[in-house]
Amino acid sequence: DQQVKQNSPSLSVQEGRISILNCDYTNSMFDYFLWYKKYPAEGPTFLISISSIKDKNEDGRFTVFLNKSAKHLSLHIVPSQPGDSAVYFCAASVGAGNMLTFGGGTRLMVKP
Amino acid sequence: DAGVIQSPRHEVTEMGQEVTLRCKPISGHNSLFWYRQTMMRGLELLIYFNNNVPIDDSGMPEDRFSAKMPNASFSTLKIQPSEPRDSAVYFCASSPRDRGGDGYTFGSGTRLTVV
User: What is the pLDDT of residues A51-108, one digit of tens each?
Assistant: First the structure.
């Protein structure tokens, strides 16, 4: 039973347009959410996070939105760049200092 | 800082053989995690340690899997006997005790193929 789900295994976007990656969770105890980015042959690296006390967090071209009532979060990348092509993992934890539960990942392809 | 170091990078073994994956966490990090990445299930947590003590091993698939952390600078994940369904990329990550998920540093992974 996956507590964090990314229902789109892949997404293709044109350079310069917006990329929207989605994530749903089932555990209502989760209160800290993160996105990780993974390039081939490398480990995942932290991208951006959000606490449940907020509904939006922005860092440059990356914005994460949290809808607690829908148990849904999304990552917006605008404008998308070819270097953003990677696998993006959504993750969640109960408390900011605790272990992460990851989703299955979404492969983003940004076409020049 | 060399980051989290995993070895080997690739391992090909025959079904039934013992496989040992190794991890050196970042110095000073108190928490260590073993994850497995598969197409079907994404990144699954297998086991994690705090201060070298296993805290949660509920993700270990079965008794064929075992993990140890004999000291703060080394951990192993062993599969005995290995099976083709164990083929996956295995990641080790470490984190400071007082940091959340944004403090995780992952290694580059070990790609295991069991034939």
Answer: 999 999 999 999 999 999 999 999 999 999 999 999 999 999 987 767 889 999 999 9
Q: Which residues in chain B are closer than 8 Å to A41, comparing Cβ atoms?
A: 108-109
> How many angstroms separate the CA of residue B17 from the nearest CA in chain A?
25
d(CA B114, CA B53): 29
Question: What is the token pair recorded at B2?
Answer: 């060399």
Q: Which residues of B touch A45 (CB under 8 A)?
A: 106
Query: Per-residue pLDDT averaged across A39-52, rounded?
Result: 94
User: What's the sign of the alpha-carbon dihedral A92, A47, A69, A11?
Assistant: negative
Residues B84-96 pLDDT 10s: 999 999 999 999 8
Q: Which residues pair with B93 in a beta bridge?
A: B33, B106
SS3 A93: strand
> B82 with B61: CB under 8 angstroms?
no
For range B8-22, the mean pLDDT: 97
Residue A26's φ and ψ, nearest 5 degrees, are: -115, -25
Who contacts A13 (Cβ-Cβ below 8 Å, separation ≥6)?
A19, A80, A108, A109, A110, A111
Three-class SS state of A107: strand
* pLDDT surpassing 70 at residue B1: no
* Contacts with B, A 72-91, CB within 8 Å: 89, 91
Radius of gyration of chain B (CA): 13
